[in-house]
Structures are given as C-alpha cells and as structure tokens.
Amino acid sequence: MIFPQPQKFKFSEELYILKDDFSSYPLLEFYRAVKSGIGEITVKNNPVLKKEEHTIKIDADGIIVSASTDEGLYRALTSLLQMIKNGNGSVPHCEVEDFPQLPHRGYMLDISRCRMPKVETIKQIIDYISALKYNEFQLYMEGHVFKYKEFPEYTAAFDCLTPDDIEEIDRYCKERFIDFVPNQNSLGHLAQWLDTNELSHLAVDGGGANSGTVNPLDPASLDFIDRLYSSVLPHYSSEYINVGLDEAYGLGKGQTESYCKEHGKDVLFMEWLNKIAKLSEKYGKRRVMFWSDMIYKFEKTYDMIPKDAILLEWGYELIQSQRMTEHCITFKNAGLNYYVCPSTNTHFTFTGRMDVTTFNIRTAAEIAAEHGGDGLLLTDWGNGDGHPHFWVWSAVPIALAGQYAWNVGVEQDGEKFKPEFIRNSEKYVDRVLFGGANVSRLLYRMGNYYLLEPERVHCSTMCGGTFKLPLSETNFHNLFDLKDSGDVFYFDNIIGYVTKVLSDIEKVDFDERLKREIAVNSKTVILSAELCKLRLGEAITAEKKEELLALIDWIAEEYRDLWLFRNFEKGVEDFENQLAGRKSELLAM
Question: Which three-class secondary structure state does DSSP give residue 566?
Fold first, then answer.
C-alpha cells in the first residue's frame, strides 16, 4: 500500500470512506492544504518524534497524522496521498510508524556529458524523487554547462542553466524538503577548462596530454577554482558542497612528481582538499563532500581530512559493490562521515544493466545501514559519447534506491535479492510514470540484453561501447576486442531478444513520448548489434545496407525531436555525429 515500505505498519481490510477528494492533488498542494486545515485529516504535533519520523492512524473515526516537524508531516502526507490515489475514494484502516533508515537520501544527475536538461525537466525529476522521500539532490558539473559569470565566453554561443535557474531550482527543492547541494568538480575531470588557452597552463602534464587535473601546487589553480565557486555557490542555499576530486589522474605526474615523491601523493591531495574546504566556507558551505577513490590506500593521512567532511564511497560493478564493505568499515573505524554511492548503471549501455543495478543498490544500502553510513547518493551518469540514454531507464533504479535508503529491510545472509523490493519498485513506477500499464518489468528485461553478449564489460556493454567506433575498429579501450568474441551468432541473439521485448512494449498503452524514448534506445542496440556483425566480417547485402541506413535516419530524426523536448539543444550533436559517421561508412561499402 505504501512505497517505500514503512518501518512498521499494520493494515486491515476495513475501509475509511473519504469525504474530501484529494486524489488529483499534487503532493505539495496536498501538504499545504492539510497543513492549513483544509479537509478531514487531523494533524497532531508529537514532540517525541524525530525530524522525519511520523505516524498515520486510520480507523472509523477518521485519519490522524502525527509528526514533530513540517518535514515529518510532509513525509507522512507523502504516504497518505499515495494511499488516497490508490484507493478510489477510500483508504484502509491502518497504523503506520515510519522513519528513514538513512538520514541523507540523495540523487545526483550528471549534466556535464552532453545532455543538459531544461529547468522544467529538472522540476519533474524533483517531483519524482520527492514522492519517494529523497531529501537531497545534486546536478554534477565539471565543464561548460552553466553560465559562469567569471567565464561568460565559454557558454555565450548556446543555452544552458543560468544563476536564476539554479535559484529557481533551489526554491523548488526547498519547498519539497530537499537540499539542493552544489556539485562542482575541483581537481580532476577539468579537461574542458584546461583545454582553453586561458587555463591550459594550470593543467598537470599527463605525458604530453591534458590529464584533466588542475595543478594543486600552482597558486593560480586555487584562484581558478575560486572563480568557479564565486560563479556557482552564491545561488545555492545549502550548507553542503560536493567538490568532487575523483579520478585526479594527474597527481604524481608532471609538475607534481617531485613533490609527491618527497611528501606523498596523499599529502598533496589532503592539502588541496583542505584548501578547497576553506575556500568553500567563504561561500557559506561549511561541509564538503568528496569522492573517496583517491584516498583508499592512504589511511595514515586520514587525520588530515577536514572536520565534518563527507566521503562519497562509489562503486558501480559487482566487485566494487563488495569492496565497499572494507572501505566503509575503515571509514567508520576512523570516525569519518560517509555516504554510499551506487549507480543507475545506464551510462555506456543505452538501456541500463538492471541485474547489476539491483545488486549494486542493495549492497550499498545494506553496508551503510550496518556500518554507520550517513546516507546514500544514487549517481546517474552520462557519458562523453553523446549521453544517448534517456532518463526513462533511470526510473526504476531511482525508485529501488528510494526504498533501500528509506528502509533497507530485514537483515539477511546475502542469498536473496529481496525480489519484493524490485517488484514493488516496478509496480510503483508503473503507477506513477506509465499510468498503471505494466511496462517496468519489460524495461528490466530490456536492460539485461547485454547478458547475451559474448563478453562482460566494466561499466558498459559491448553494444554500448562499440557504437562510437569506426567500423574498422574492433578494440574497445582494451577491455575487449570483437575479433576475440566469437561470431555473429551472439549478436543475432541480441537482435532477436531486443526485437521481441520491444514488440511487447509497443503493444502496451502508455505515454507516447516515453514509448518513443524507449524505442529509440532499444533500436540503437539493434543497430549496434548489426554493426558488430559487420565488424566481425559479415558480408552486407544491398537490401541489408538500405535497411540499416533507413534505421539510422529514423533514429536520428526521433532522437533529435525527443532530445529537444526535455533538454537544451547543445550536446545533441555528439550522438548525431556518431550516427552520421556510421552512415557514411555504410554508404562507402
């Protein structure tokens, strides 16, 4: 009846017939109406209850919700409204006692790799996570994706988020008891900035290439970060900031090599972290978050981590999920604050990898619950190759992570995947996103197409990884080579499987735009599988050539139209260029 599943609940078959019809109310409107005394719902203040803790009691005498704070009342009414919408004018008699397992439950959306959503799209996402009791939201920034007042020239030619947009989103989040946390990478992943003539001198030399890492030994580097911060941070009301600092591959190289040999790479990292933390305070951000991957081996310098900093323990694969336990126990024993950060696993896949995703989310949440984690931050990454996957593939992972972050469920020995959580998340998404149609289970099947591929690939699929490559290339980042992966049999299987699942989806009646988004990504998998066959040496007939050219044209037209509806135009060209590249190669055959 309620998703995420409450901590304690008891329902009966008796029904309370509602006098007031709140079924059409949006959540925030419902909260405001009840709080102001409109309708038959009785609100009681119970100072014993903690911040988000609440109770719901429904019997023949009426509906009573109790909380000690407005936020607790909002969470209670989130559950109650869900019951009302599902009840056709009635709600069951019940007693619910509920509170979150993890105090911080966040969702992070990457807007730095091609796909930059419009404000209205972001608001729709916020509404979605709010109804799942998330209380933290982040937009990941690393490149030219925001109108930085200190660097206006880099975004002058295209539309993207503005300071006014950020403030509008901030207010929208705050009304829904969500903390909108700024997320600005501040050490690595700065290649787009460091490729400019103005800032190239700040890059650590990565052996003749841009390492993407700003030189922490150059005082001008901190000035550069300060200019970024001065452009971004004043528009957020949160006292937190995610400063990134992950995958700073330049540390220990180039200009930093001799310093790191003398003092240690860990010392240089910690010194930079403290400079960034102090700089953040200048803008009212007293608590920094940073990705923990750079410090795993450096326990001796953990005492240099700033007070109240939050380590973001990320890992998206099966093995990484398991290693989280070791890392989080170490953090706990060192007295450090940390979040676990699983992933939607949609990047480099077109449709996600749902079996990995469900394991990853479950494992991360259980580790946090058992070993003192402060929160869960679900990451939703794009990729630098066009960010072709639409957000629809993230809906079920977001719902599932919402369940685990709110209530991780019973302790267990690890032999089960808590299938009821997976199924309930799918049922929830079917109700709220697909109008009651049974779509989510089909998306789960589609998201597992990659299990038919001859190779398993880290954070990717073979079809997702190879699509950007010219047809003459078969090696993907040395993770696999198609020439070593068998023959066309496997890719024929993928084509048949994806075609069948897509046919089942297309028979279902639900939102036409969402159906088109699903179809574009699914047919891109089919196209990529066909191209994999060509890379393996399969001869192409004139008929097959025309079929693939027509498929590319259809994908390109649909993709642009669907992209522009929800996103700024800038970035759409990246995937379009890949389509055009494959088309030109086919024409030359």
Answer: helix
